[in-house]
């Protein structure tokens, strides 16, 4: 079922491929993808996945972080000096390290 | 052979529905659609006023979405600073003190729509709820009826029962 290079069948296949690629590129633009949601029925709206829970764009510094990087070799743990149990430089404790994380500070 | 396959695949791609959306785009679309399923006690030929509090989480999308006609009435968006008895529908975002707004809404036959966990318990009528990645809604039909807002059975059929599954 393969066509020889340069044959009419081969050229037709290439042309069809190009048409599909251009169509897919066109539909990939936001304007083309956006069907006005308010024209959908409630049932159709119920089938749509919510992509984000954020209300609006916001600076990354105020966005809740999913990951906190705590450097054991840097200053993070040294600065988290416990009043009763000072952490010796170079020593790490998992619980203390987790407490340093922004999301779990308590 | 390839052309046949193309003929089979293209219509499917063309008919493919939108499957994801931003939370507040979707909520705005729901809010607009709810208007089609609600009757207010004093029908008039005037506009259907849809309000949101000043903290408006929809941003500019609110006015963009709340345009057009619903059941022969023009929809008019309005951002309010204080309780407004002129609203036919009111969206109360989470984090906003709902009680004073709900009190006025109850006496002025305003459809209230919220997104807080305790919105229905506070006296709201429709509340958005996330169920996995899908947006669903609860309805307190009794509260709506007491205010004189009649919600169609078609919409009630699609609601989540508070604390339970769909009826």
Q: What would you note in describing this structure?
A:
The complex is a heterodimer of chains A (106) and B (167). Chain A is mainly α. Chain A has two domains: 1-51, no CATH class; 55-106, no CATH class. Chain A contains five helices and one strand; from the N terminus they run H-H-H-E-H-H. Chain A has helices at residues 8-27, 30-33, 42-45, 76-79, 94-100; one strand spanning 49-50. The longest helix of chain A is centred in the N-terminal third of the chain and has 20 residues, at 8-27. The termini of chain A are far apart. Mean pLDDT of chain A is 59; it is low at 24-33, 55-60 and 101-106. Chain B is built from seven helices and ten strands. Chain B is globular. Chain B has a single domain, classed as Rossmann fold, CATH 3.40.50.2300. Chain B starts with a helix and ends in an 11-residue tail after the last helix. In chain B, the strands form two sheets. Chain B has a seven-stranded mixed β-sheet with strand order 4-5-3-6-7-8-9, with helices on both faces. A two-stranded antiparallel ribbon of chain B has the order 2-10. By secondary structure, chain B is α/β, with parallel strands linked by helices. Helices cover 34% and strands 25% of the residues of chain B. Classes of the chains: A mainly alpha (106), B alpha/beta (167). At the A-B interface, helix 1, helix 3 and strand 1 of A face helix 1, strand 1, helix 2 and strand 9 of B.
